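Sequence in, structure out. Go.
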Amino acid sequence: RIRVTFQVDADGLLSVSAREQTSGIEAHIVVKPSYGLTEDEITHMLQSSFGAAEADKQARALREAIVDAEQLIEAVSVALTKDGDSLLSNEEKQTILANIETLKSLCHTKDCHAIHQATETLNHATEAFAARRMDASVKSALAGKNVENLEL
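Output:
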């Protein structure tokens, strides 16, 4: 009688042990999935992935900055279309539009820092506009209502 034990660890390595019950002789092997790769090839692949980690991190940060910028551009553009003429002076509107164009052009570069700065600049340029839009929304929602009848 032979007792065979199979065990898979967290790394996907298979350990197999076999023990002959009457004599007590035991054998143990570890099966490493190499997919036809040598130990040196696996080591090289791991080292290459570590080497590319910083570039991958920078590429991800750039893509996230671009996505954030594009979302802000879209939100501000929609707000300008809806309320820009009624809530902004011509000068304020032109400043915001110029900031949008700057941010759009930077989204085609690979300068993550510049994209972040332009995003912050556009955010800052639209703060007063956002506050006015919020005030107008609250005023509209409360129009014709009595303070005593409001539910909080």
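Check: The chain has two domains: 2-31, 55-142. The first helix runs from residue 39 to 87.
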